[in-house]
Amino acid sequence: MLVKAVKSYRDLEVWQKGVELAVQICQMAYHFPASERFGSAAQLQRSALSIPANIAEGWGRGSTNEFVWFLKVAKGSLHEPETHLPNRGTSVRLSHDAKTGRTSWRDRNH
Q1: Dihedral of the CA atoms 32, 80, 66, 53 (nearest 10)?
Q2: Which of 32, 53, 96, 108 could cross-link with 41 by S-S, CB 3.0 to 4.6 Å?
Q3: Checking phi first, is residue 62 left (phi over 0); if not, alpha (psi -120 to 50) or beta?
Q4: Domain range list for the chain
Q5: Does 3.40.50.620 match the CATH number of domain 12-107?
Q6: What's the alpha-carbon Rg for the chain, to the nearest Å?
């Protein structure tokens, strides 16, 4: 098995998936009512964007220990958007498929 050398945090699949998730959440938040644009929508976007941002910051620290710390922070940040959505009365939750490695939003009722 050939392993690609990692030269940047942008090469990391976890960062790429974090960006994809952040884009999905930002697109979802764009459709919130105008009355929530500077409240719930903004907080949801900030929490989603913090996931890949923490991965990038940890990489930039140049220390393995600090990188691992920021990966843990990013992992914890995954739960913040999941927490904000039910507070809006949605039935959406974060779901991780172990077979494909994909994290996505799922309807809690299905």
Answers
A1: -10
A2: 32
A3: left
A4: 12-107
A5: no
A6: 15
pTM for the model stands at: 0.73
Interval 60-72 mean pLDDT: 95
Distance CA 90, CA 59 (A): 34
Helix (H, G, I), strand (E, B) or coil at 46: helix
| CA-wise closest residue to 91 among 69, 106, 101 | 106
The tokens describing 75, both together, are 């992992």
Query: What residue spans of the chain are helical by DSSP H?
Result: 13-30, 40-60, 64-77, 79-87
- Other C-beta atoms within 10 Å of 54: how many? 21
For every residue of 17-43, DSSP letters joined together read HHHHHHHHHHHHHHTS-GGGTTTHHHH
Residue 83: predicted pLDDT: 76
Give whole-number Cα distances, 21 to 34, 55, 63, 66, in Å: 22, 14, 26, 23
Confidence check: pLDDT of 85 > 80: no
